[in-house]
Specification:
434 residues, Rossmann fold, Dihydrodipicolinate Reductase, domain 2, Alpha-Beta Plaits, twelve-stranded mixed beta sheet, 14 helices, 36% helix, binds NADPH dihydro-nicotinamide-adenine-dinucleotide phosphate, binds L-homoserine
């Protein structure tokens, strides 16, 4: 049987999982793919650390270029992460005519246009399945299973760390910092956890999904991004009392003219399927014009689930190489028509959860609802939370759920409410899933 050589850049959490998986399921893979997948070289900066998987020390090196330039390496697997050395090495590998598999969403979200063009020019495969959804092969779903659909919307819980933190904040009333530490200890968080909790990791994945769904390179700069760092425990609990869970959601929606690409904490009704996605699990709900709603669920992070998707990509690249037809599956397939415009956040329509600390005096609630009405924001429900004991310095929390409204109108109303001196602190505004 023909052998196919893999060279690994980065022997960290995912890299070690890939080597372990390739070794454990070697025979099975060989039968399914028709080639024996062999790890020929592994580069990492630290060769002394125990990676929890046995490898021949002779294949280890600190020199990543020795891996790329090794003639026995057919497929370069980049698992270093980030946009520094990883970008240089992926570029060099593609220019050297090597097929590349990567899980690096930051690289593809920020430099995708450049990297995909290089792969096209070099006529080699670039697979990136694990860049979104960890163990969920959602990239493959969009490239293959749903290829015949016009995608109408994608709603995704795409960051395991945030979902884990939100679940523990809701279920155990755990403070944000403590929940983050637990997620880091479990190996879910990026080395810079700000990428997770400030929403950028989700946004990286969202622009990759949006690019796949709508056929143009959606730049990171057009994604609206809000993370969960400043989310107050009290809003998690109020949302729960009202029958909602707060999820960090990627919302991607196209109407044929414009596309929305946004990431923010979102109230999801408890009976919606996405509300039951807890802990490190991710899920993506995709609506196609032919398929209707479809749902994909699984572990969005971690050594083995991510390795599963990386190995799936290695298998596809190996099949393409065996068949002598690289570029079998196009990266971001550009549509020939004009790219869609990305809708500004101020122009979106959503339902909103508003929490205001309203001054506890006669008429202030009336003033507040009048201002909302003046801006065309219709109220679905209002409730004053807590009794006298809940009042702090004469202010009382009032939670309002609106009907569908335009973001710019809600913002204008909140600005006027602030100026009217009827609230004690900045209002909290969270979007709801329609
Ligand atoms: P890790 O930090 O665990 O692993 C990266 C490894 O690369 C480290 O061992 C690091 O060494 C090594 N490295 C750094 N610089 C070089 C270099 N110049 N040459 C060779 N090796 C180098 O990251 P992960 O395994 O968690 O993530 C890898 C990629 O997978 C990232 O793009 C990440 O976003 C993505 N990903 C991760 C998931 C997860 O659950 N962890 C899920 C989905 C995607 P050292 O630590 O000593 O610096
Ligand atoms: N830090 C990421 C997460 C890893 O928590 O989802 C998977 O991309």
């Amino acid at each position: 049987m023909k052998q196919m050589g893999v060279g690994l850049l980065g022997f960290g959490t995912v890299g070690a999982g890939v080597v372990d998986g390739l070794q454990r399921n070697r025979e099975l893979l060989a039968h399914r793919i028709g080639a024996d997948i062999v790890v020929r070289r592994i580069a990492d900066v630290d060769l002394s650390r125990d990676r929890g998987v046995a490898v021949d020390p002779a294949i280890l090196t600190t020199d990543a270029r020795a891996v790329i330039n090794d003639p026995s390496v057919d497929i370069v697997v980049e698992l270093i992460g980030g946009t520094g050395i990883a970008r240089t090495l992926v570029t060099e590998a593609l220019k050297a005519g090597k097929a590349v598999v990567t899980a690096n969403k930051k690289l593809l979200a920020e430099y995708g246009e450049e990297i995909f063009s290089l792969a096209e020019e070099a006529g080699v495969d670039l697979y990136f399945g694990a860049s979104v959804g960890g163990g969920i092969p959602i990239v493959r779903v969009l490239r293959e299973g749903l290829v015949g659909n016009t995608i109408q919307s994608l709603f995704g819980i795409l960051n395991g760390t945030c979902n884990y933190i939100l679940t523990r904040m809701e279920n155990e009333s755990l403070p944000f910092d403590e929940a983050l530490k637990a997620a880091q200890a479990a190996g879910y968080a990026e080395s810079n956890p700000s990428l997770d909790v400030d929403g950028f990791d989700t946004a990286h994945k969202a622009v990759i999904l949006a690019s796949l769904a709508y056929g143009f390179h959606v730049p990171m700069s057009v994604a609206a991004v809000e993370g969960i760092r400043s989310l107050a425990g009290v809003d998690v609990q109020f949302a729960r009392e009202l029958g909602y869970r707060i999820k960090l959601l990627a919302v991607i929606r196209g109407d044929g003219t414009e596309v929305e690409v946004r990431v923010h904490p979102t109230l999801v009704a408890r009976d919606h399927m996405l509300a039951s996605v807890s802990h490190v699990f991710n899920a993506v709900m995709v609506r196609g014009d032919l398929s209707g709603d479809t749902l994909y669920y699984g572990r969005g992070a971690g050594r083995e689930p991510t390795a599963s998707t990386v190995i799936g990509d290695i298998g596809d690249v190996a099949r393409n190489l065996l068949a002598g037809s690289p570029r079998h599956s196009r990266g971001i397939a550009k549509l020939s028509s004009e790219p869609l415009r990305v809708r500004a956040l101020s122009a979106i329509h959503s339902r909103y959860y508003l929490r205001l600390m309203v001054v506890d005096r006669a008429g202030s609630l009336g003033q507040f609802t009048t201002i909302l009405g003046k801006h065309g924001v219709s109220i679905h429900a209002v409730s004053q939370k807590g009794g006298a004991e809940a009042q702090e310095g004469g202010f009382v929390p009032v939670v309002t759920l609106t009907h569908l409204a335009r973001e710019a109108d809600v913002d204008a109303a909140l600005a006027e409410i602030r100026a009217a001196g009827i609230v004690g602190e900045d209002p909290v505004k969270l979007r709801m899933l329609d």
